[in-house]
Design goal:
Strands 4, 5, 6, 7, 8, 9 and 10 form a 7-stranded mixed sheet that branches. The chain is about 50% helix and about 15% strand. About 5% of the residues have low confidence. With about 400 residues, it is α+β, with helices and mostly antiparallel strands. The chain folds into 3 domains: about 140 residues, no CATH class; about 70 residues, no CATH class; about 160 residues, no CATH class. This is ABC transporter permease. InterPro entries: ABC-4/HrtB_transporter (IPR051125), MacB_PCD (IPR025857). Keywords: Membrane, Transmembrane, Transmembrane helix.
Length: about 400
Amino acid sequence: MNNSFYIAWRYLQFHWGKTLLLILSISLVIFIPLGLNHLVNKGSEDLMARAEKTPLLVGAPGSETELSLSSLYFNKPKNQPVMFREVEKIKEQQLGKPIPLNIEYQVKEQPIVGTTPDYFEFRDLSLAEGRKMAILGECVLGAEAARKLNAQVGSSIISSPSGAFDVAGSFPLKMNIVGILEETGTSDDEAVFTDIKTSWVISGKAHGHQDLQQVENDSLLLAKDETQAVASPAVLSYTEITPENINSFHFHGDPGDYPVNAIIVEPKDRKSALMLRGRYENEQSSVQMLVPEKVISELVGTMISVRDLLILAGVIIGIACLAILAFVFALSIKLRKAELQTMKHIGASRNFIGSVLGLEIGLVLLSAIIVSGILTLIMGNFGIPLIEKLIS
């Protein structure tokens, strides 16, 4: 057996180009259905796990899938925002805890999530260092966001403009990092969390001004006397909130009219959840309430249907490829007729020659299975974020 193995191994090693081509071909034939099945199954589990932990969502009418994905994974929202008074309305009903989400803005590629401290408790997020945000202009980073932004507690980050033509709307805000979260393996790792009011400052709903009584340049004022000063548009709005200017920040209009992209509702119990859903279904309002688990389940069902079709196609193609490979092996043996005759002449038995050929095929198949297994593991580790990006 050792002699057969040695000869088979030396043959494959000598014809390394053909051997490598066969291994790659067979490994891909095995990997495509196996890897696709593993990827979709793992992705489905992760998608459903986060959806199952989110009982109810409130948002503007439109695509339920878009609302669910933007709320669960902090994708750029495509649905219109709802008014903050919807949060107050849910709170008044005392059937559940509303958690607003404002996810309109980013720091580079990392989403800014304007919310309340209740979100950390709801998602069971714990701090690796620092503390939670307490005042305007403070933020807490997810573990991955901190790595990508190369940020630490005590440093600052600046929000990105929402668009190249956003002239009169949002403006970059310098935020102080006061905490970094433990890694969770979810989309929370990628987020920059701020208080909901800080996200409204970014959107331009609130701003601060220079101390008008201390302004020396009279061209910045429309009027000034001993009791009051009236600012001109030239007085700069702050883009950083500090202890010195925080008292100058003020909100314009009714906070109930301010936007939130979605509201997570954590009902007190199953009965409260049913009552909330019933009230929203009966009301003719500009908002909708949905169950993320149901929406994501339908999305996963579509993914599985597509997966099954692709696997079926892959299996059919695989059978055809294996038939071709069998033909290649048979042709190779025929082309090696002189070599095999030489082995017979020097005393090799028919069984010995058969074992050499069998070991050659076995080594190629074993190597292909190992390669396909490695590819499947790589797909499992790095393919899930790809699925999340594709569905978003």
